[in-house]
Design a protein that fits this description.
There is one protein chain. By secondary structure, the protein is of the alpha/beta class. It contains 9 helices and 16 strands. It folds into 2 domains: 8-309, Pectate Lyase C-like, CATH 2.160.20; 353-390, no CATH class. Helix 4 packs antiparallel against helix 6. The longest helix is centred in the C-terminal third of the chain and has 80 residues, at 273-352. The protein is elongated and about 110 Å long. The protein starts with 10 loop residues before the first strand and ends with a helix. Residues 296-330 form a coiled coil. Keywords: Coiled coil, Nucleotide-binding. GO terms for molecular function: GTPase activator activity; nucleotide binding. This is C-CAP/cofactor C-like domain-containing protein.
Length: 390
């Protein structure tokens, strides 16, 4: 008989300001949930079936290979490294994604999302890729499908190469982690010369062209950046250092290669103007992205304001309904009281009327021509009541 699993071992919930770790072998291919965490650094150093990241903010999350899907939902200000067969972000803002995925990453109702290649390593990660049935070479990290595109401002963009960094986690008693098994494009300081594809082919096939999603100038600049940086990396990566000799940046020495104009001049005096233009283009894109983020923040503030006004109107509507309900209740009660009082007055007057019993007894003979018609008798009685009340 299998031992019953403890649910608490497969979730991080409502944590604040902590470093949270799942060690190699602790998940062993099962599901995991990260929810309502703030200001945390989280390491999932094992393979899993699927992972949910919900309602968290201001966190750094590093996740090993996942055979199924990684879902990021209702999160804000997150840096996440995610390797899975499917990666999906919904209802989130300002998410920095270092992604390996064997299918197109998907966005829905999300803004200010940046994408870069997967960057995480820990002891045994290469074996875990095999256990999760993922091929590290088949990475579609940049082929993003946006289900809710914005016609004015792109919801997503590529991470500037100067912001790319590798992350590794070591554990006492375990072998040192090797390099990240996912090939890193030359644009981001790696050795992979595979062309960076911007946007999902499925989205283009469905009629949503990338220049519509990201803006013609934005897509042109980013594709130019990717192509020219790859060309530059292939021909100019090796630099000469007088003290250290020849350094091969393709082997992961990313700290010494900074993607800005001054560092390029210092390490490679012969860098061509075309490559310098590339860096300028990317810097301009960063400025545009900052402007876009500010615009998104303004939109979010307007949405918050509109939501507050809507809630205020809803509150007033409920107050009006309550008032009307109370008014009708009091009105009905008062009407019933008056009706009861009127009946008492009529009864009192009728009892004081001399000969009234005679009238009631002989009403069929007196007012109806001697016919005993109950409905006519009742109407005659009502007429007598009215006469009394006048």
């Amino acid at each position: 008989m299998k031992a019953k699993l403890n649910r608490e071992d497969y979730q991080f919930r409502k944590k604040t300001g902590q470093e949270l770790i799942k060690y190699p072998g602790q998940l062993n291919g099962l599901d995991f949930v990260i929810s309502n965490c703030e200001e945390c650094t989280i390491y999932i150093c094992d393979h899993a079936a699927q992972i949910f990241v919900d309602l968290s903010k201001n966190c750094k999350i590093y996740i090993g290979p996942v055979e199924g899907s990684i879902f990021v939902r209702k999160c804000e200000n997150i840096e996440i490294s995610a390797a899975s067969s499917q990666f999906r972000v919904s209802n989130s803002n300002n998410i920095q994604c270092f992604v390996y995925t064997s299918s197109d990453p998907a966005l829905e109702k999300s803004t200010a999302i940046t994408f870069a290649p997967y960057n995480f390593a820990y002891p045994g990660i290469t074996e875990d890729f095999g256990k999760a049935k993922l091929d590290p070479a088949n990475n579609k990290w940049s082929e993003v499908f946006d289900f809710t595109p914005n016609t004015e401002v792109s919801n997503w963009t590529l991470l500037h190469p100067s912001q790319f960094h590798l992350v590794s986690k070591t554990f006492e008693g375990l072998e040192e982690p090797g390099q990240c098994p996912v090939p890193i494009p030359t644009t981001y300081g790696g050795t992979c010369t595979k062309k960076i594809i911007l946007g999902s082919a499925d989205q283009k096939a469905s009629g949503l062209e990338l220049d519509f999603l990201m803006g013609k100038e934005n897509i042109k600049n980013q594709q130019q950046l990717a192509d020219e940086n790859q060309s530059y990396q292939e021909t100019q990566l090796k630099v000469t250092n007088q003290n250290k000799g020849e350094v091969d940046l393709n082997q992961g020495n990313y700290e010494e290669f900074i993607f800005d104009e001054e560092s390029v001049k210092s390490t490679e005096p012969q860098v061509n103007m075309q490559s310098q233009t590339t860096f300028n283009v990317f810097d301009e894109l960063v400025v545009d992205n900052q402007f876009n983020k500010q615009k998104n923040e303004n939109l979010n503030q307007q949405m918050i304001k509109d939501d507050a006004e809507r809630k205020q109107k809803e509150q007033k509507r409920k107050q009006a309904q309550e008032y009307l309900k109370k008014f009708m209740s009091e009105f009905t009660e008062l009407a019933n009281q008056r009706k009861t009082q009127n009946r008492a007055i009529v009864r009192e007057k009728v009892q004081k009327e001399e000969g009234w019993k005679t009238v009631v007894t002989n009403i069929d003979l007196k007012d109806n021509g001697g016919e005993k018609d109950v409905s006519k008798m009742a109407q005659a009685i009502k007429n007598k009541f009215k006469d009394v009340l006048k």
